[in-house]
């Protein structure tokens, strides 16, 4: 991932609702229509480490010394909402990374991602977010448990790239990265605790699949085109500021060693 990122600390072992708007200007958690895993997703690698449970309504990703694993959506989407509930690896998860991201893997890189960085027992996870637009990282809206934790507005008028032209797939992976994931690589993975297991359920994709109806992305009846989805409400804005004041541990917008002059999107507000 690019070194340009935001990082937030949070408690470990929680059930997390992750909502990322794939390319629209804003998002909120709408009424979900969870499906089974196989309706919208498929195993991307290491099928022996992906277990469908509860009649296919949930999956477990396993990490051991042999392999990590991952899954991907069967289709790509241009605009819409993706949500699922994730229970991260409990206990001692140091050196592990559970990633959830939307990405275009064929063209110039567009990507919206979460990376949940494990930690020693009792210590908080770090949630690292990043955005790539037209191949450039360092930077749309991310929610954890209905709380916005990352906002990236469309500022193309200011010359800021925005990922709104390439359809993206939806991916999640569980893998070992103890050379950097926990305290910069100081805390190594303890393989005696393997297998490490992350749980996923309530899969929901609502959006414009590609290929699909040509008018989907510009259809005024799409719920994400409504005024309520073009920005944060006053309550959401308060929650957003609270998260950043109380839990943020890194913000590229304030990193003057890398950006003596803040990137233009950093002064755009929410």
Automatic annotation (TrEMBL):
Cite the post-translational modification comment.
Contains at least one intrachain disulfide bond essential for its enzymatic activity.
Question: Where is this protein localized, as stated in its record?
Answer: Secreted, Cell wall; Secreted, Extracellular space, Apoplast
GO CC terms in record:
apoplast
Gene3D superfamilies (alphabetical): 2.60.120.200
Q: Which InterPro entries match?
A: Beta-glucanase-like, Beta-glucanase/XTH, ConA-like_dom_sf, GH16_AS, XET_C, XTH
Family per record: Belongs to the glycosyl hydrolase 16 family.
Full protein name: Xyloglucan endotransglucosylase/hydrolase
């Amino acid at each position: 991932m690019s070194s340009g990122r935001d990082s937030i600390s949070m408690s470990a072992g929680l059930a997390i609702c992750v909502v990322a708007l794939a390319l629209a200007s804003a998002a909120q958690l709408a009424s979900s229509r969870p499906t089974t895993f196989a309706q919208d997703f498929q195993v991307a690698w290491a099928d022996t480490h992906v277990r469908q449970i509860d009649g296919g309504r949930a999956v477990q990703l396993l990490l051991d010394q042999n392999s990590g694993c991952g899954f991907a959506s069967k289709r790509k989407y241009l605009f819409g909402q993706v949500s699922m509930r994730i229970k991260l690896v409990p206990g001692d998860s140091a050196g592990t990374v559970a990633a959830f991201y939307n990405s275009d893997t064929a063209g110039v890189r567009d990507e919206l991602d979460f990376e949940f960085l494990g930690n020693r027992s009792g210590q908080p996870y770090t949630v690292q977010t990043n955005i790539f637009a037209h191949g450039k990282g360092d930077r749309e809206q991310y929610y954890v448990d209905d709380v916005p934790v990352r906002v990236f507005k469309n500022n193309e008028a200011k010359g800021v790239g925005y990922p709104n032209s390439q359809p993206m797939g939806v991916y999640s992976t569980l893998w070992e990265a103890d050379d950097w994931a926990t305290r910069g690589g100081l805390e190594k993975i303890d393989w005696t605790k393997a297998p490490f297991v992350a749980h996923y359920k309530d899969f929901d994709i609502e959006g414009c699949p590609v290929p699909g109806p040509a008018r989907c992305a510009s259809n005024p009846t799409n719920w994400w085109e409504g005024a309520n989805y073009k920005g944060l409400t006053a309550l959401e804005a308060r929650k957003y500021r609270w998260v950043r004041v109380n839990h943020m541990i890194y913000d590229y917008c304030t990193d003057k060693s890398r950006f003596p002059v803040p990137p233009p999107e950093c002064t755009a507000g929410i």
